[in-house]
Amino acid sequence: MWLVALLAICHMPLAAPAARASVKLPEIIADHMVLQRDRKVGIWGWADPGERVTVTMGGRSASCVADGRRNWMVSLGPFRAGGPFELRVAGSNTLTVHDVLVGDVWVCSGQSNMELGLALASNAACEIPRANHKTIRLYTVRPTLATSRRPDTQGSWAVCSPASAAGFSATGYFFGRELQEKLKVPVGLVACAYSGSPIEAWESRYALKRLKAFRPEMARWDWIDRDYKLEAQIYRLKRAVWRVHGQIARAFGMRPPKPPHPLPELSQLGGPSVLFDGMVAPMLPFVVRGVIWEQGEADVGRAALYRILFPALICDWRSWWHEPDMAFYFVQLHNYESGIGKKGTSALAELREAQAAALALPHTGMAVAIDLGDENWVHFSNKQAVGRRLAAAVLAGEYGLKVAARGPEFAALSIDGRTARVSMRNAPGGLRTSDGQAPRAFQIAGADKRFRPADARIERATVVLSSRQVARPVYVRYAWADNPACNLVNQAGLPAVPFRTDR
């Protein structure tokens, strides 16, 4: 009988929360926010079922009725860039959101290099006092893991100031500053990053289950989920027994037993979709202009899978935002010593190649960071450069501005006896080196694929290669290493994209 009673205690439902009679907004719709210009924007929240809610801003209004689950949403706008405005939400109560700007909103996502704050960037002592930008607004999504979709984010908007910018994503800040200076419109930056996160943590379970290459991993996590539920039942039983023993011990003046060791949250074990459910999905359907992405260190050694998962993530996010052409611009992995991979190979170089393959999707772009890293540290502090490169790619690709946005890229290879000639595109005015020395980090190989360092010289937009160790060159590689000493750039100073011709 006592076992039945304990099981009943374990499964006793929690008291339902008291119904809220007031209209409520998500945390991302709040004072100092930026709404996306030139598009209809969704304003949503919660209210009593059947309650009528009216939203008004800038002389426009829209109404709806909360559904049976207390959800409501209206579509408002579009609005031109400007402000500040007041957003008024009226139901049984009235909420007013103050100091709302209309401009361009960008999500800044990825892992620790995107998360790295301005205070840790190069020259932070000079940059932070200058971070006074009234038309740049910052929102940081609190790092949250979840195994089911959270209803709301945790965070708050802030006007960009030295105090608010110091802990904000440095990459995001420098990117946003460039955009605001060039476009002269308000910019909203939503930092949504989590240190050490693998790419599948950011994708929805719906998308992952459709990928044949990821089915074994999904099956493994489904098994973990089932096993965890059994462990959770056992833990609840142990807690119930511990409470009973504690009551008996206290009744007889004895020391109560120690509680059972708690289980970790399932989300803390990692796994697919935990960051999508905890951080991305809760901000939907907040309308954004696009995404900048800095991630990949956690996936070094998994290049073949990343080549599938990365474009799948881009398509997944676009589908959830209902924006098939939503801009998605990313940072290619920087140079550092990963310590992963067999001798003579570079798992980092392979991951960079997998990242670059996503450029086959429309409205994407890549900022090369092969010259910005530190061999001894997985993080790098020159966020000014990576922010500028991301901004240049976006300004050229999404806004049509004539700015230098892409470094030299492999175009063609021709062989003439002992000489290999590599033609590069994105080199108007020709190639050069960043240090005035001969090009470095080139390797050539014959049919045996035994790569040797190559002597290199520049002829306009072509690099001429040779090696006394390779009589008949067949293949070429450039910067194909974890931490290559590379120096090839175009006239704008943008670094050449690493490549190989032997794949």
Could you walk me through the main structural features you see in this protein, from its secondary elements to its overall organization?
Helices cover 25% and strands 26% of the residues. It has three domains: 34-204 and 273-397, SGNH hydrolase (Rossmann fold); 218-269, no CATH class; 409-500, no CATH class. It has 503 residues and is α/β, with parallel strands linked by helices. Strands 1, 3, 4, 6, 7, 8, 9, 10, 11, 12 and 13 form an eleven-stranded mixed β-sheet that branches. Strands 14-15-20-19 form a four-stranded antiparallel β-sheet, with no helix packed on it. It contains eleven helices and 23 strands. The protein is globular.
Sheet/helix structural class: alpha/beta
Low-confidence stretches: 1-19
Q: Per the principal axes of the C-alpha atoms, what is the gross shape?
A: globular
Task: Note the gap between the termini.
Answer: 68 Å
Task: Supply the key terms.
about 500 residues; alpha/beta; Rossmann fold; 3 domains; eleven-stranded mixed beta sheet; four-stranded antiparallel beta sheet; 11 helices; about 25% helix; disordered N terminus
List the helices and strands and how they pair.
Elements: H1 2-10, E1 34-36, E2 41-46, E3 52-57, E4 60-65, E5 71-76, E6 82-90, E7 94-110, H2 112-115, H3 124-127, E8 133-140, E9 157-160, H4 162-165, H5 170-183, E10 187-193, H6 205-209, H7 215-251, H8 274-280, E11 290-294, H9 303-320, E12 327-331, H10 347-357, E13 364-367, H11 383-397, E14 409-416, E15 419-425, E16 431-433, E17 442-445, E18 452-453, E19 455-459, E20 462-466, E21 475-478, E22 488-490, E23 499-500
Parallel strand pairs: 1-7, 7-10, 7-11, 8-10, 11-12, 12-13
Antiparallel strand pairs: 2-5, 3-4, 3-6, 6-7, 8-9, 14-15, 15-20, 16-22, 17-18, 17-21, 19-20, 21-23
Helix pairs in contact: 1-7, 5-11, 9-10
